[in-house]
Amino acid sequence: MKAAGTDASIVFDAVSLDLGGRRIVEDLSFEVPAGQFVCVVGPSGCGKTTLLRLVAGLLKANGGTVRYGGRPVQGPSQELAVVFQDYGRALLPWRDVAANVSLALEAAGTDKSARAGIIDTLLAKVGLREHAHKFPAQLSGGMQQRLQIARCLAQRPRVLLMDEPFGALDAMTRQSLQDEVVRLAEEAGTTVLFVTHDLEEAIYLGDRVVALRANPGRLADLIDVTLPRPRDQLRTREHPDFLALRHRLYQFMQEQH
Ligand SMILES: Nc1ncnc2c1ncn2[C@@H]1O[C@H](COP(=O)(O)OP(=O)(O)O)[C@@H](O)[C@H]1O
Ligand SMILES: [Mg+2]
Q: How much distance in Å is there from the Cα of 49 to the middle of ligand 2?
């Protein structure tokens, strides 16, 4: 699936953005190297969702450049998939689980005869194979979010943009989906830009954490997380480096209030 000559890296190079006459993002620079998992944290309203929209080609910077694969982002691309926080609204209620995944394949022009096999494999990956013929309203929140992820994976994206995707889930479901997304992204070599307001989630998942401050949104801290992989919900969260990073980020967030 790799497009020749491009790498799936994302670069923010001195990016500024105004909306409604107000500066939303100011002089923001950071990099998401290809194949890495980078988390963005920061207080509500600091511009996290806006960053994803810039990368997705839904907004255009007023200053600086957002680059994907070495080229300025010009508009939406099939190589990038977005997982929204509001999974309920991202699914089509009148299509069953399999048909919701099929949507991405139909959009990509995948041959009809190949679709059932791909859908089956994807649903198995996210633990929904037994629920292929249920409708979204019959699924728990965690299952709906799994379905949205399966649909994004069907697109075989080189980049996953995730906007607080587990915010509405209970702790156990959130942890199991965290591990699943890391595993699936590693398996496929996917670049992930993951927005969360949960500092521990950012450290647990990330190769790098980008911390923003608000009004306007700008870089406050950039942390390379060197915790060993595969990560483990118990051991990683008890690791002295995890606790040190948690301390550093909590202090930063305290200062924001
Ligand atoms: N279309 C828009 N027009 C004007 N202001 C906007 C628009 N979209 C977002 N904003 C403002 O930009 C700021 C950042 O929003 P957002 O990126 O959604 O923050 P976050 O996701 O970090 O909570 C907020 O103050 C929000 O009100
Ligand atoms: Mg947001």
A: 4
**10-79+158-255 — its CATH code?**
3.40.50.300
- The pLDDT value recorded for residue 16 is 98
Contact call for residues 162 and 185 (beta carbons, < 8 A)? no
Q: Which atom of ligand 1 is nearest to the CA of 197?
A: 22
What is the pTM (predicted TM-score) of this model? 0.94
What is the torsional sign of CA 30, 201, 104, 136? negative
Question: 19: which strand partners?
Answer: 22
User: Ligand 1 pocket by C-beta < 6 Å: which residues?
Assistant: 19-20, 24, 42, 44-50
Please tell me the number of Cα atoms within 13 Å of 153 on its side-chain side.
Answer: 25
What is the C-alpha separation between 196 and 97, in angstroms, rounded? 26
Q: What is the mean pLDDT of residues 177-190?
A: 94
Q: Comparing C-alpha atoms, which of 230, 108, 126, 142 is closest to residue 184?
A: 126
Can you give the residue ranges of every domain in the chain? 10-79+158-255, 93-156
At 52-86, the pLDDT tens digits run 999 999 999 999 999 999 999 999 999 999 998 88
Q: Which residues of 16-41 are buried (b: 16+ CB within 10 A; e: fewer)?
A: bbeeeeebbbbebebbbebbbbbbbb
Task: Give the tens place of pLDDT for each residue, 111-125.
Answer: 999 999 999 999 998
Cα–ligand 2 centroid distance for 45 (angstroms): 7
Segment 160-177, tens digit of pLDDT:
999 999 988 889 889 999
CB burial readout 60-87, b (16+ within 10 A) else e: ebeebebbbbeeebeeebebbbbbbbeb
